[in-house]
Amino acid sequence: MGVELKLPPELKACLVEDWDLVNKQKQLFQLPAEKNVDHILENYVTFLKSQRKSDNSEYSVDELVCGIREYFNKMLGTQLLCQFEKPQYDEILLAYPDILMSQIYGAPHLLRLFVNIGTALTHLSLNRHSLMSVSSYMHGLLNYLAESSSSLFLASNYKMASVAYCFKAL
To answer: What is the pTM of this model?
Structure first.
C-alpha cells in the first residue's frame, strides 16, 4: 500500500525546467539556497497553522514536516541529484560538514523528493487511515509549492557550470 502523489501542472513544468537547466544546459542550482528546504517547510507550517483551527489529527503537520526533512536529508545524495550535480554535492559536504543538507539545498531538490517519496512511504507500517492523512498533508504541501512556484523555482537561481567543473562531472 503506497501513496501516489499527483503533482500540480505548475510543478511538473518546474521539474522539466530544472532537468533541462541541469542536464542539457549544464547549469547548477546556486548553493546555499536563498530559500532552503528548512525555510520552505517552516513557511508551510506557519501558513497551514494560520489557515486552520487546532485539529487533533493523528499526524500533525509538524510531524509530517519533520519526516519530509529527514527523508530529504537521507535521500539527497543517493536519489535526488542528477549525475552532473554530484561533484557539487561533494564540495558542499566538504564546505559544510556539520550542516544538514536541508539547510543548504532549495526548492527544486525538495520537489524531486516528491517524485520518489510515495515509494519510500510503502516501507512504513501505517494503516490506511494514517496513509490517507499523510497523503492529504503532502498534497497540501505540493499545492503550497505550486502557489509559491513563481518565487521558489527561478531559472535565475542556476548558474552556468565552469569548464573545469564540467570536466570533473564527466
So the answer is: 0.91
